[in-house]
Amino acid sequence: MDQITIYVSEVIRYLPQKSQSEIKKELTTNILDMVDELTAGGMSEKDAVVSVLSKMGNPRLLADQYLDKKAYLIGPRYYPTYVMIAKIVSGAVALGITVALSVQYLFSTDASIFQTLVQWLGSIFMGVVQAIAWVTLIFAGVERFEEVGVLKHVDVDLDDWSVKDLPKSQRNSKKSDRIEGLVGFLFAIIFLILLNTRLELFGVYMFDQGTLKEIIPIFNMQNASTWVPLISIAIALNAISDGIAMALRNQTRNTMWFRLVLNVLSFIFFAYVLINGNFLNVDLAAQIAPESVELQNLWIWAQRNVVVIIVVVNLISMAIQTFQINRFNRE
């Protein structure tokens, strides 16, 4: 009976979660009924199970029959989750851009409401389009990536399948940290959009009697074209990693390794900019308080140590991921 349990689990793992329980009961009942018919005719239970499962064929193809799956960019298994995530991400991006532009408008003395409205509509449109594009890319990639992963495990053509190709036990999987992945993905997308469209908003806001006097940029605006693309790539890689965690209900060893590779690549881009790129505004403290030696010394200290802090945090994060993968292999 273990083969029946494994076979059914292989089928339902390709189905939407809401339908898994019902199809699991239905499929198990149908298989047991067919096995009983064969054993009643004198066949051994072991041979009957093999015969029934062989006739039912590849679990992946059987799951596709339940889905009536076509050549979708995002198939029925992930589509409901994709729509939900796309709505959440679009709303969060729109809210982030609205807050950023509202702050700029409220504390600006020469801002035109018409220009701000036009800017807001344009930014919302571009931001939401980019956000949905990222979500679509990740979900489409997850579906293709899982397809490749399944074929690696089976190592045969979909039509050329036998009961011997079933795994010895139910596949190991780890519950994906979907909420954590969603939060990380949202933060990455919002930051990525603002970094490439409203870099001047990242700064220290200087007020004079309640009126915004100026925004002193935290980043080096003069050489932004040299480091913004690299940081954007690093953030995008992190967004893809978090997006995979967000999209998957369960993570396999393959997806865990893939996320680790993405994070390592992201870290390499970050580290290159931090070590070689003058991306921070070295005159920030002097522009805030020209007479404050203490503030200037503090800013110098912060610039030196921010590299160390970011490097250490990333190394710890990657070490934790590696530990989780190793523990996953032993479970």
Q: What is the SS-derived class? A: mainly alpha
What percentage of residues falls in helices of 4 or more residues? Answer: over 70%
Total of domains: 2
Number of helices: 11
How far apart are the termini?
A: 22 Å
User: Which residues form runs of ≥5 with pLDDT under 50?
Assistant: 148-157
Q: How would the global form be characterised?
A: elongated
What is the quaternary state of this protein?
single chain
Strand order of the largest sheet: 1-4
**Biggest sheet architecture:** 2 strands, antiparallel
Total strands = 4
Order of helices and strands: HHHHHHEHEEHEHHH
How confident is the prediction overall: mean pLDDT? Answer: 77
Percent of sequence in beta strands: 5-15%
- Computed over alpha carbons, the radius of gyration is 27 Å
Task: Describe the protein.
- The two termini are 22 Å apart.
- 72% of the residues lie in helices and 5% in strands.
- With 331 residues, it is mainly α.
- Helix 8 runs antiparallel to helix 9 (253-276).
- It has a two-stranded antiparallel ribbon.
- It folds into two domains: 1-69, no CATH class; 70-198 and 214-330, no CATH class.
Element layout with pairings:
Layout: H1 2-12, H2 17-40, H3 45-56, H4 59-67, H5 79-106, H6 113-154, E1 174-175, H7 178-197, E2 203-208, E3 211-217, H8 224-247, E4 250-251, H9 253-276, H10 284-288, H11 293-330
Helix pairs in contact: 1-2, 1-4, 2-3, 5-6, 5-7, 6-7, 6-8, 7-8, 8-9, 9-11
